[in-house]
TrEMBL record:
Organism per entry: Rhodococcus jostii
InterPro entries, alphabetized: NAD(P)-bd_dom_sf, Sc_DH/Rdtase_CS, SDR_fam
Highest rank taxon of the organism: Bacteria
Protein family per UniProt: Belongs to the short-chain dehydrogenases/reductases (SDR) family.
Keywords assigned by UniProt, alphabetized: Oxidoreductase
Pfam families: adh_short_C2
Protein name as it appears in the record: SDR family NAD(P)-dependent oxidoreductase
Amino acid sequence: MTAVDTTDSLHVTTADPSTFYPGRFAGRVILVTGAAGGLGSAAVDRLIHEGASVVCTDVVGDGDGTGRDIAALDVTDRAAWDETLARVLATHGRLDGALFAHGIQGPETTITAMPFEGWSKTMSVNLDGCFHGLAALLPTLTEQGYGRVAILSSISAREGNPFQAAYSASKAAVVSLVKTAAKEVATHNVTVNAIAPSMMHTRMLDDLSPERNAALLARVPMGRVGSTAEFAALATWLLSTEASYVTGQTLDLSGGRNTA
């Protein structure tokens, strides 16, 4: 039994190259974390199609099966962030933006049964990993007077998913972190925003039980899982010059899931 039905009945949207905007990121250098994952990889593909020089990172380096080089970056290690930034500037001479697409699901259990080790690791990757990234990159972006940062949150940040306390809490904290960072750098032409997907067609669905997947899908009015192409479309817009007056926001990518 698979974790969730991903057949054509869910009408998963696929990437259409004709919707790309060639040259939109010409001359721009974008850093992507979680670049080997489903969401990060899709965003990297679109950024490259649109002319960006993309620096791909993930917790494990080397290739991702596509011939793309991925540098190792432990997002929970501030020194590793500083070293990564130094390499980017030495190689490209600039950095124009970043997509933080890293994250882990964490334990699927009640709060009372939550192992602290699982709670702590989830917070460390999902929240601390974004904090360290912002602390490392924002000085460069503000100094040059331009920058775009997009961070992966979750629809669970708005309402909390039962049996996912660590994940939900970490993603809610990311929303608050984004608002704070955005206000601190707003006068420097640097924007910081978050994306809150509901269910996305990635391997992370396999980390949840079939029952949990079914329960979550039942709350999506469109009745389907979102595609990585749909995530990439929103992420790349937030990373573009077009999103110049949007900052401190968390944009839902949820198929109509209502958190009210």
